[in-house]
Input
Amino acid sequence: MSDPRKTPTTGYWRAFFSRRNAIAWAVLAIALLANLAVWQYLHSRENLAAEGQFQLLTNEVSGAIRKRMIDHEQILLGGAGLYDASRQVDRNEWRVYVERLNLAANYPGIQGVGFARILQPQAVAKFEADVRREGFPNFTLRPPGTRELYSSILFLEPFSGRNLAAFGYDMLSEPTRHAAILAAARSGESRITGRVTLVQETHGKVQAGLLMYVPVYRSGQPLGTPEQRLDALRGVVYSPYRMDDLMAGIIGDQAPKLDFAIYDGDQPRSENLLFNSQEQQVDRQPLLSKQLQLPLYGQNWTLNFSSRPTFEAGFHNDGILVLLGAGVSLLLFVLASQLTLRREQAEALAQRMTVQIRQSSEDLRKSEERQSLVLKGSNDGWWDIDLQVQSFIASARAWEMLGYPPDESPQAIDRWHQLVLPEDLGALQDSLRQAIESGAESFSSEARMLQLNGNQLPVLLRGFIQRDAAGRPLRLSGTMQDLSEAKRIERMKNEFVSTVSHELRTPLTSISGALGLVNGGALGEVPPLMGQMLQIAQQNSQRLSHLINDLLDMEKLAAGKLSFELHIQPIKPLIEQALVANQAFAEQHQVSFQFDQPGDMWVRADALRLQQVLSNYLSNACKFSPAGSAIRIHTELRGSLVRVSVCDQGPGIPAEFQNRIFEKFAQADGSDRREQAGTGLGLAISKELIERMDGSVGFHSVPGQGATFWFELPLIEEHSLPSRSPPGSAAPLVLVVEDEPGIVHLLEVMLSHAGYRVDSVFSESQALQRLAEGEYAAITLDMRLSDGHGLALIRDLRRNPATHHLPILVISAYCGEGRKLLDRVDDNIAWLEKPINEALLLETLDQFITTSSQAAIEHTAGHEALE
Output
């Protein structure tokens, strides 16, 4: 008889824990260990992610506070500038200035912008009387009392609400404000106070407050020492801040995941608390916390950050994964047990797998359908090339793009070759061959394809390379994108940049040149304050000029339209000219040039373009070198090459940026707060220019130890420079042919100061008449004249024996067009792009006149010898 104690359930559990089920238990143990390892890994990764995100948030908050305080300082500096520019500012002018700032919209959190007058004791009574006459009959300076020095809040806008309580208040009467005002006065810099209670706290919650001061000095007073600045103090422009309102304006809802408190001083003491984002103290230990020191305008703030539960909830959610992993482990255990113990379970599992396979097949079909719809939506065609049988097929859209009827049947590979423009086929095959030989999985290349109507269609071909186990290519599959619209937009962009840049050159030439003459003292001594403004204007006009030149040069280089005048010449004078041209820039950055004098080395180069490269190298070295350092320029022979190097002592080039240093628009600091301005085109243009002169460029740099940029040109056998005309000859007469009155006046001043006599005409007909009446040493010529084109005048002069060799300096924004249309080489014509470079103009003119005079002397000597 069977044991009545045995039931199907007890038998099942005995089998469950029997040796036959050992494999299932092993599976469970392995799965649980794997789950534990995964949990530990995820937990450590989430800790790192949480710390990184917390660090980012704290940096954003502290950075936002610093930036907003800098913005507020700029407001006060603007107000100080208003006082510096005006001997007297009235209440209405101050109100208009502050209203234009639109504080509520642009700078939320600022209480107002005001001005406080500094008063000697003997001036208080008169000051109160003057204010009362303005319409404030009850005005009096407060608090009363005898002090060595007084101040009074005179203006504070908006002049309403809480700010009315501050009118007439003497901020020097309170120690914290008194210390900050005197610190700002003695240093000449902006200062903020420690924690104070504002007089504006007339109602509602009393918030911690602080004030920022910018000193205003009386005009003409010496400011060399702290005592002199204090004696010359006229008043302070200031802003009061209620800290809760200020932080709400700065942070808003940017930091919902962390709490932070701000303390005045180096230690987080409760009596120095300026702001706390926690309205109520919560007894909770945060997951992450951090303390930062934020120095601001003579004060040091301590910022305590702690993570909020909402921030912490975004991490360490691995409990669900652990439970899921445990569940999967148990599921595997149960499945293994069922497979081991029951055949029926295996059959059921097989059935479920069959269902899953069917579902996967359905999912695959839907995926392929989605891919097809996506491809249709992109409006691209697809193609597939079988390299084994040398055939290809293309989608209906691909044939439609080329104007052919749809045909998805296999085609011979030669048919594909016939569709590609012959001029592009070789480059396309080379690109594809390079991708295959390099082991790449994909490739991308542009080409032009022939449409049925004979037109050319620019396309982008992108594909995947399928290989066998040995790495041999089997198939190429990819897409074909129509680039017609992209190319059209690119042409429009280039035409727009070129047109706008050219049109900007003529007015910019007048502005830059005129400012240069005024700042140089050509029109008399300039007052210091005006001189500073004019210097700023000149510097920014030069920056705009450099930007336009860079854009035009890059556009010309890309289009292959930039012409070169290559001459064999010594390298040393070109370097010396570049050093002279950049000397003022070096002095501005407080650095010096150290030129290691080379021997006689000759190269074949375009002098103007080579100077452009040198200027790029030198200006970069000046910008990134510390004040007081020297920039070394040296030349050396390296085999058959001449290498010119520019070495600075700056911060060097970051390692991660070095492989992009010569790319277009590349800048190591690409943020909108970078210290050094620029387009990022200078080095890219320099590389193109040197390579067009059969040279090469490069650099070497160790971060933190400076950088050396160099270029190399082929060495040419030695030549000799032509001798210059003897000194003491009469001042040469130059004819200026230009229809823009501002440019005419600019050239007259430049040439006259250089010792030339100048005549000016505004048209082609006037120029021919003057040249027939007098003898000129050279002429300057614009391409666009009121009654014709400058090229017509050039051709007329060259046909006339009397002016056949007359030196001509073309000064125009259309030099490239002129060179192309002239269709001949003329050594007595120089092409100078606008805006006018005064040093290059005078140097070129001097060289032309010297060479012309030498030729005339040799010609006369030859005649005398024949006689």
Summary: The CA atoms of residues 566 and 606 lie 4 Å apart. The longest helix spans residues 22-85. Residues 343-374 form one domain.
